Amino acid sequence: SEATYNTLNVGMPARFTFREGAALPGRIVHLSGVAEASSNYAIAPSSLVGDSYRVSVAIDGGGDAACQIGRTGRVVFGESGS
């Protein structure tokens, strides 16, 4: 939502929890608001529903195998998970 988006900053900790339960700490690396639609997401922006606020999170030390395309889960902002 816009309210959540407005509280975020690049560099803020985040935690991605896979649907299967494994959690990975990370940091926000990019914020794009309503007017900006990136074309380099793994999921086409046209298939995303809801508000048009996008947040990119880099997983700490995850490597390419940590979060493969197609994996689903939940991101919690402001928590590193450590």
Outline the structure in words.
The structure is a single chain. The chain is mainly beta and 82 residues long. It is built from one helix and four strands, in the order H-E-E-E-E. Strands 3-2-1-4 form a four-stranded antiparallel sheet, with no helix packed on it. Strand 1 and strand 2 form a beta hairpin. The longest helix is centred in the first third of the chain and has 4 residues. The termini are far apart. The mean pLDDT is 76.
Question: Which percent band covers the strand fraction?
Answer: 25-35%
Taken from the alpha-carbon principal axes, the silhouette is: globular
Strand order of the largest sheet: 3-2-1-4
Order of helices and strands: HEEEE
Look at the helices and sheets and give the structural class: mainly beta
Q: Residue share in helices?
A: under 10%
**How many E-type strands?**
4
Relevant terms:
mainly beta; 82 residues
Show the helix and strand layout:
Blueprint: H1 2-5, E1 13-18, E2 23-32, E3 54-59, E4 73-77
Antiparallel strand pairs: 1-2, 1-4, 2-3
